[in-house]
Amino acid sequence: MDIKETGGHIFPQTPHIHAGIKTVTIMWSVVVALIPGAVFSVFYYGMHVLILFAVCIASAVFAEALIQSMRRLPITAYDGSAVITGILLAMNIPPGAPLWMAAAGSVFAIVIVKQLYGGLGFNIFNPALAACVSLEVAWSLFSFTGWEPVIATKVIFSPIMFKSMPLEAMWGIIGETSAVFFFIGGVFLLVRRIISLHIPIAYLGTSALFFCVHGYYGGLAEYHLLAVFQLLSGGIVLGAFFMATDYTTSPITGKGKILYGIGCGILTCVFRFWGAHPNGVPYAILLMNAVVPLIDRISRPKVLGQ
Amino acid sequence: MAVSFRGGICPKNKTLTTNKAFIKLPIPHQCFIPLQQHIGAPARSLVRVGDLVHEGQLIGEASGIFSANVHASIPGKVIAIREHPTIYNDQLTIIIEAEGSFEASTNLHQSSDWQTLSRENIYQKIRDLGIVNLGGDASPISEKFIINSEYPIDTLIVNGTECEPYLTAEDILMQSHPDEIIDGTRIVLHALGIKNAIIAISDDKKAAVESLNNSLKEHRLTFKDTKIKLKKTKTKYPQGVEKLLIRSILKRNVLSGGAAKDVGVVVLNVSTINAIREGVLYDKPLIERYVTISGSMIRNPGNYKVRIGACISDIIHECGGLKGDPGTVIFGGPMCGIKVHDMNVPFMKGTSGILFLSKDEAASTRYTSCIRCGACISVCPVGLMPNELGSGVEKKRMDRVSRLNPRECIQCGCCSYVCPAGRPLTYLIGMAIPQDDA
C-alpha cells in the first residue's frame, strides 16, 4: 500500500529506494566473521568440537522454527540469527561438554531467552550468554566436564608471556582459544560497518586499563604483559566484538554504546579479580544487558534546532 | 573544504544521466494544466471551454498570497476544464489541444534591463509569471521574500547541491549555463537589496564547479559590489534541505518551527534562479522546466526540457518508451518523490524528476521487526530516534511518541533507506506529526 488514508490526511510512503543491506545480510555476515575462530577451535580440539557446533546450530534453528510454527508466527529461522546464537553458545562452553547439554542450552537460548520475549529484536538478554550461564547453574557445566587450560593465546603468542602464569588458574571455553581469529572476524565486521568501534574500543580499552592499574598496584613488574594476557584469554575479545555488540541487547546510540562498553569492561575485571568466576565475560555482559534501557534513556541524541 | 551536517546517506546512482546534455522534448499535442501545482489555494480559471489561447497566456489567476498564476504551456484550444488525476489527487485541470503558432518560445527578446527595475517590479514579475520554488513543494517564491524586520535578510544561498539520488538536471544546468545562473543570482540579490550570495554545490559535481568558477572569474569586474562565492558541500543526502544547508554553510541554527528567513537567509535552488532570470529578462512565464528522466526501465534516460502539463504517457513515448512493465513510477526524487499509478498524470512545476524504477531498484514493501541496529539514529540529520517513533506509532502510544519530537522530522527518508528490516519509518513518523502541522 502506498498511500494510506489517516484521518483525512494522505501521507505518501517514501522513500522509494533502499540501501540494500537487509537483516539477513547482517546476520549471515556475522556468521562469516565467526568462521575463522570456529575453524581454528575445531582444528585445535578436534572433531568433538565440530559436532558440538553442529548440534548447537541445528538445535537452535530447529527450536526457532518449531516455536514460531507453534505460535503461528512467520518462520524466520533462516535469517541467520539462530545460527549466530548456536555458534556463540558453542563458543561459550568447554570443548568437553556433552552434546545433550549443548542442545539443551540452544533450546533454552532460543525458546526462553529469545522467542518468549518476543523474538528477534525484543529479547533483553543475549540468548547465548544467558543459556551458557544457566547451563552452568543447572549442571555445574564447567566442573562437570573437566577443564582444559587456555591455550591458543599461548600457541600464538607463547614466547613473550606466561612465564609465571599458573595454568590451573586458567579456564577453558572453546571461544577463548582463538582471540586472534575473533579479532580478525571483528575487524571484518567493522570494515563492513556491521558493528561500530564504540563497544569494542570501550570494552577492550577499559579492561586493558583496569588490568594495567590492578597489576601495577599489585606490584607486578610485567603488569603490561599480564594485561595483554588477560585480554587474550577468557573470551574478552569474543565478547567485545561478537556478544557485547549484539544489536538487540546493547544500547542504540554511540554515546550509550561507549557507556555500555565501559561498564562491560569494569564488570569483567571485577569478576575476574574478586569474583568466583575466572572468565567474567558472560556475567558482565548479561548484567550490562539489564541496564540497556536505562543507558538508552540517558543517551538520546540531541535534536537539531532545540 | 567541503562542509556538511551530521548523519545523512550517500547513495550513488546518478550515473545513468550525469553525462547527458539537455534535450528539448517536442511540444505535446495535449497539455493538462492543473490549477493547483503549488502548496496553497488553487488558481482561478480565466478561460472557458472553446477559448483559443496563445503560448504563455495567463489562464489561471492566483487567489491569495500562497497561490500562483498558471499559464498555457502550448498554444491551442481549451477543450475541457475538469477534474483530472495529478500526483496528489484529482484537481481541476485545464486541458489544451495544440493549435496555432509558437511565438513566445521563439521570440525570446530581452525586454528589460534588470538593473533599472525596482524590487517591487521584480517581485511583481515573479508573481505574474507564475514562478514558484522549483524544488520540492513548488511554494510561491514571494513568500520567501517577505522581509522580517527583526532579522533582515543578509545572504542568498543558491542551492546547487541536488542531493536526491538519480537527479542530475541541476548539475547539467550549472555545467551548461553558468553565466545564466550567476546572472540570475545577481538579479535576485538586486531584488533582495543585499550583496552576499553563496552558491552551494556538492563536491561530486566537478564539471559544474569548474564552469561556475570560470564564469565567476570572467565576470568579476562587472559585479562591482556584489559578492558571489562558491561553497562546496560533501556529497550527501539530504544536504539540500534548507535547515541543514544553512547550518552547514553559515553555522546558523534554524530553530524548531522556524524558517530560513528567521535567520536572515533566502535559499533558492538553481532551477528557480534560472526561471527567475528568464522571467525578469524575457517576461517568460513558467511553462517549461528542466527535468531528469531516469531509472532503469526507461529506454533513453537523460536530462530534458519539458513543457508543464505534458502527460506522463507522452513523455514516456518521447523518451524511447519503456523496457517493459513501468515498475515504480516516481515524480520527483526517489527519496521524497511521489509514486504515481495513473499514466495520465501531468508534468507539473514542482516536478524535478520522473523515475521509472525496476523491481530491483525500488524498495520492497515487506518488512520485519526492528533489530535495534541503530542505523536510523545514526543517519537521522535532525537527531531523532526513528526506531522508537516508529514502534510507538505502530503501538498507538501517542503520548510517548509526542515526547520524541516527531514535528522535527523533515521526512527526508534516510531512516527507511538504511533500515535493514525494511521498516517504513519515515511513513510511520509522518503519521505522528500532528494534523494541524501537516
* Tally of strands of chain A: 2
N to C succession of SSEs of chain A = EEHHHHHHHHHHHHH
Envelope shape of chain B:
globular
Unreliable residue runs of chain B: none
What fraction, in percent, of the residue positions of chain B are helical?
A: 25-40%
Helix/sheet category of chain A: mainly alpha
Spatial extent as radius of gyration of chain B: 21 Å
Average of the residue pLDDT scores of chain B: 87
Largest interface: A-B, 43 and 63 residues
Strand order of the largest sheet of chain B: 1-14-13-17-15-16
Query: Strand arrangement, largest sheet of chain A?
Result: 1-2
Order of helices and strands of chain B: EEEEEEEEHHEHHEHEHEHEEHEEEHHHHH
Beta-strand content estimate of chain A:
under 5%
Main sheet of chain A?
Answer: 2 strands, antiparallel
**Describe the biggest sheet of chain B?**
6 strands, mixed
Mean pLDDT of chain A: 83
Describe, in short, the structure shown.
The complex is a heterodimer of chains A (about 300) and B (about 450). Chain A is built from 13 helices and two strands. Chain A is an all-alpha fold and about 300 residues long.
List the helices and strands and how they pair.
The complex is a heterodimer of chains A (306) and B (438).
Chain A: E1 3-6, E2 9-12, H1 23-45, H2 47-70, H3 81-91, H4 99-114, H5 127-139, H6 141-145, H7 152-157, H8 179-191, H9 198-217, H10 223-232, H11 236-243, H12 254-274, H13 281-298
Antiparallel strand pairs in A: 1-2
Helix pairs in contact in A: 1-2, 1-3, 1-8, 2-3, 2-4, 3-4, 3-5, 4-5, 5-13, 8-11, 9-10, 9-11, 9-12, 12-13
Chain B: E1 23-24, E2 30-34, E3 44-45, E4 52-53, E5 58-61, E6 70-71, E7 76-85, E8 90-98, H1 119-128, H2 142-145, E9 155-160, H3 169-176, H4 178-192, E10 196-202, H5 206-219, E11 227-233, H6 242-250, E12 265-269, H7 270-282, E13 288-294, E14 302-307, H8 312-318, E15 328-331, E16 338-340, E17 353-357, H9 375-379, H10 386-394, H11 398-402, H12 414-418, H13 425-432
Parallel strand pairs in B: 1-14, 9-10, 9-12, 10-11, 13-17
Antiparallel strand pairs in B: 2-8, 3-5, 4-7, 5-6, 7-8, 13-14, 15-16, 15-17
